[in-house]
Give the backbone structure.
Amino acid sequence: MKMTARRQRMAWIALLLVVVGAAAALASAAFRENLMYFHTPTDIASGEVPSSTNFRLGGLVTTGSVDRDPDSLNVAFRLADCDHEVQVQYSGILPDLFREGQGIVTMGYLDDEGTFQAQQVLAKHDENYMPPELAERLADETGHSCEPFKPVRAGYDTGYDS
Amino acid sequence: MLPALGDMALAGATCVCVLQILFAVQAARAPERYPAAPALLNAMVSSHLLLIFVAYCAMSILFVQDAFEVVFVAQNSHVELPLAYKLSAVWGGHEGSLLLWMLMLAGWTWCVGRFSNNLPTSTRAIVLGVLGFVAIGFLTFTLWTSNPFDLQFPVPESGRDLNPLLQDPGMVIHPPLLYMGYVGFAVAFAFAVAALIEGRLDSTWARWTRPWTTSAWAFLTAGIALGSWWAYHELGWGGWWFWDPVENASFMPWLVGTALIHSLAVTDKRGVFKSWTVLLAIVAFGLSLLGTFLVRSGVLVSVHAFASDPERGLYILAFLTVVVGGALALYAWRASQLKPETRVAIISRESALLLNNVFLVVLAAVVFIGTLYPLVVDSLGLGSMSVGPPYFEALFIPLGLPLVLLVGFSATLAWKRSKTGPVLRAAALPAAIAVVAGIALWAGIYAARGAMALVGIVLGLWAIFAALRDLWLRARSGRGVGSIPSSLWGMSLGHLGLGMFVIAVTVVSSFDVERDVRLATGEVADVEGYQFRFEGTRPVEGPNYIAERATVTVLEDGAPITTLYPEKRRYRVQQDIMTQSAVSYNPMRDLYVSLGEPMGSDAWSLRLQYKPMMRLVWLGTALMMLGGFIAALDRRYWRATRSASATASGATAQQVS
């Protein structure tokens, strides 16, 4: 009787270990596969970002850069941080809060020509929103605070050099 | 005047809470010395509820009066805002939502005081004392860091308006339901702490705790489902679950709470898994606290919100540490006293429920890691990253489907020790129906695409038919349908709802079709056999917005079946643009149209979606919720409590002597 009780408990523990172990293995694999890093245009310019892997790109939509194709849903625009710009290509409907000067996050990959092919464009529902990662880098250690970006609607022009 | 009244009410409630805790400690120590303790505690709990209610009403009146000298009102309201939204704007922001939280906590505490006359005085004192402690944490947090009654000078002429996204009927009732769930777990938590302190946890305890926990779970289910429903209709793009950290924050307590109501059943019926049940109750409430704070303090939008308001962040951490850490320390110290009353056989209902618990807790861990790991990595400065929906989907399919398989065995497996033969025989018919009907549905309607879809459909049908079989078997062996106890009705409805939910999720995620198109007036786009004809747009005016309203005629095989009116709204105050989608639905499919942007001349971009069985997602969750409420009403808990209280107090007396 005692023996079976013990064996039973061992069977239980073994079963639990199998389930939890399998879950952990699955989880770590899924985690590694779906981990997506966030980058800025400066990261891309410095060559830190491998091409044709998916990542999230954040930046501000450069004023005057939005170019819509009148006959399809293709749209091209540039995303900028303090120092660099990246050309972005997207096909589909843009979110309501997509506008020039707005901080947005896109998801996609960098093609061979250095254009970011976006599969998803996200704008947060707050006109003053800036992706936190971007806000951090805009107030970066160089002291270049990117002030012109901030009063976004106050007639900011593209007069900065990259 | 009103802001001062609100402040005073909150301060008064804090004082009452302090008294309540001090007195509860005394009464728990020496219940025989305070024969009037229950009445006195009830009086304190009632006055606490009254004071919070006064504060809450003061805030609502301030909103109705457009009292913009109050910062919180100015930030979340506007003269033009419709009355219903002014009233619901009370919980539209961080400070006011705390007020709602406290009101609900006071309400639950009052109910516990009111409906637990049969509890031994000491248990009752501990439960009310713990609830008072939780309330005091929230009261001081509100008064110190997020007082909704703060004034400002000069008084602004107008408010900043409620975020247009929150101006929706779904959003009006979503937070209160969610909070009812979160706060309800506080009751389970308080009962768990009482069990640990008294070192006694028996079937009577489980029977006291079960109805509270089950109804909290049902509220949480409703709250999450409504949030999802709101996202589906209001965010405008037809998604209904995004694995967004904010959603995950409410999903984690739900998963652990689901495990808790199942493990409570075992503790109730068999007197085992005691310390596990207590641990689950602590964790469920801990995750509820974490969820509330994470969402409302802005931690999840950005880790740096902690830094932006260090006072709030620190308070949150300290409170979480004291409440959850304290309870866990108590657990480590006392849990060994909770001895199982019997052993668990391999083939028995309790072992199946243990397996259910393992899966649910592992799923909760999966969500926890996916939600919090990126935050931790980011706050340590190791780079910014995120894990998207694919991570969660990759894990929920293999770890969630076995649960659905288990669900079908729930009622035929006997407690204590079960024979395999009868269980398998009882499973044969529902399993056969599920396989045949599943293949028919999959091949007949969805053209046999995707093997995983077939698995999901068959498992969902299995859960449904197994639940129906349970009801039928019970009705046949008892005295007809009327003899089925509400606990079985509740469980079967819940499992039936789960099955429906699983089928619907499988179908909608496997077979939905989405097309972004550019349409000029009179042009037609075809989606899955439905033709959408764009008839142009015209301007319309709402109470506080202006909109372009499009007319889209939907045709099936050339015959018009419905007309949809999606809108693009611009809210006047915040100048926000909002997409208001239009949906035509029946049980088999939703047709979802949202308006993109004007594309020059008279053309617009539109997103057209065909979402099969979308309605069954909501129906399934509604059934789960209903099942929870019905189960909580079972006469056994209320009647048994009454008869058991005498023996229980006798048992305590014996222990004491």
Summary: Chain B touches chain A through 52 residues (CB under 8 Å). Confidence is low (pLDDT under 50) at residues 302-308, 640-657 of chain B. Chain B is about 65% helix and 10% strand.
